[in-house]
Amino acid sequence: MSTRTAKAAPVSPAGPAESSHSAAAARPARRGSLPLMALGALLALLVLTAVHISQGTATVGPHSLWRAFAAQLPGGDDGPAQADAVLVASRLPRLAAGLVVGCTLGAAGAALQSVSRNVLASPDTLAVDAGAYLAVVAVAAFGITLPPLMAGSTALIGGLLAAAVVLGLARAGAGPTRLVLAGSALTLGLSGLSQMLLLLRAQQTTGLYAWGNGSLAQIGMQTINPLAPVALVALAGLIVLGRRLDILALGDDNAAVVGVSPRVTRAVTVVLAVVLAAVSVTVAGPIGFVGLCAPAIVRLLGARVPALLRHRVFVPASSVAGVFVVLGADVLLRALFGGQAGAAVPTGIVTSFFGAVVLVALAYRSHDVGDSGPAAAFVRLRSRRAFVVTLVVLGAALAATVVASALLGDAPLLLGDVVNWLTGRSGRFVTYVLDSRMPRIAAALLAGAALAVAGTVVQAVSRNPLAEPGILGVVGGAGAGAVITLTAVPLASYWAVSGSALAGAAGAAALVFGLAARRGLEQNRLVLIGIGVSAGAAAFVSLLIVLTDPFNGTKALAWLAGSTYGRTFPETLPVLAALVVALPVLAARRRELDLIGLDADTPRLLGIRLGTNRLGLLAIAVVLTATAVSAVGVIGFVGLVAPHAARALVGQRHGRVLPVAALLGSLLVVVADTIGRTVIAPAQIPVGVGTAVVGAPYFAWLLWRSKAER
Prior knowledge:
Layout: H1 2-8, H2 22-25, H3 28-54, H4 62-71, H5 82-116, H6 128-141, H7 148-170, H8 176-200, H9 208-211, H10 224-240, H11 242-248, H12 252-257, H13 262-284, H14 290-302, H15 311-344, H16 347-365, H17 384-407, H18 415-422, H19 428-462, H20 474-488, H21 494-517, H22 523-547, H23 550-560, H24 573-588, H25 590-596, H26 601-605, H27 610-632, H28 638-650, H29 654-678, H30 687-708
């Protein structure tokens, strides 16, 4: 009898730490509550479906629904009224899309969380959606039109490759910070490539930006009909694997003892999960965070009904929860904005808001597991001579790059032209070109240095060599503040936009630090809360861009992509002032940076107030990041790549890392800006897209190397 009970015990999909509810599961009241919960969910789903169908610009009631259904039967009326036509052509396909997307993403999230043993795994955090979206955009950018099954196969390939990279880099069973950092970084890189294609092939990719935020709007069932059976087969496959996933949650060794291959089970599960995510992307675009929220909801209910945590119940239950999330978000969207605007605003924006809140809540409740990787990875002792040589070489390289940047562009110049401009003896054309080109170079140089120094501070304070300023929510907050001004006041001055960016950055930083400080500013919790706030800010920015007119939306997109276009020398003064103030302060506090970067105990033993010093140093990083973003827009990966490369060159001492990182950051941004201005001149590639495309492979290599050294 006890053996039967043990076999029936539910196993938590979050991992072995949450997997012992056998005693509670054996209670009759608990066993009987599962059918009641299923019945309640069915009734609630019917009500939600009825509300969903009734929303829109045309009035549709139960009678219209019945006539539309009867018209599809043999011998039915072939001439439905206008409301019936609305149902058949728009409302029912939108409902069907919500059902398919909710089911697929909910089940995919549950499966990915199980095989990675990580409650923060989902098609978003594993970059599956970003990979699938890039594949679809790449096909559209070259004018290729594919039928639904072929488009789904393309998305599947992109999603599988992205998931394989993230899982391979983060390792199954790794803590949440490493997994989310890997997925977020790869998402940034893939999104940069997608954005580049959207900008370079604007005519061929018209409408893909809104679709890229996830929209349930459909015209007929042409896409849903061929893909729904694929989703059902993949979902059935995950349910069949439920028993193996239960055993796998007990540990790889235990699974191997009873004849379950961990590697095969994980591989098959990931493939099926990515198939589901690819179906969702093909139907409605990448709808964010459903795969994170739905399993979290079921897991909360599983605390009261442990039978829900068996995978043969957990996977379909997560599918149902995903439907509630997607349809609920769509109902809320149209209730807030009305039928007309609700059709234009992507549903994925609402789910991203909800998912950001869930991510922050999960991070707030999590324990600081210290999984960020060894802080001593890549540590090498360097001599003072090596440090001086590095400074000289980098200084010379930066000077040469600045000169090359001044000469290159849509109007190539000679070195003599630059000399004449400096001495005030240049002609009108040369003066015009350099008056617009040199401020751009100055902005790139200063912003790169500011982001690199901020990244050095963030990595030291968080004791995480894989962190960067963007994860604190500062970049997302600055972007939200600037876009509010760009969309609300189209003729706003640069200073108004910059001030809004600074205010948004400060607000986001206050939110992140306020939430993290209540639990002691623990490093991994700070990182995860920052990522959640960044996701919420990104969803808000997407909402503003979609709702505004196309002209303002284009300006906002160009700013978000990171651009030095149109900058003047006075507009670079805030970044220069921040650097002039911050660098001496950080140089004076280099000892605190060294000690805080070691561990949590050493600074306390030496009398350093860890919380106060962390907060002060992070405040400096926030100011540097905010001024850089206000000057050149959103630029990713500089704060990650430059500090790490600096440590590899001159060691861990921050007295040496800070100046080298500043030079490397300036060099990276100036090079990216120069390439963006020249390769497709007179058109331009935003500097933020260039740094993302360069930074993502570097980050992948960094993760792989740190994994190999463990």
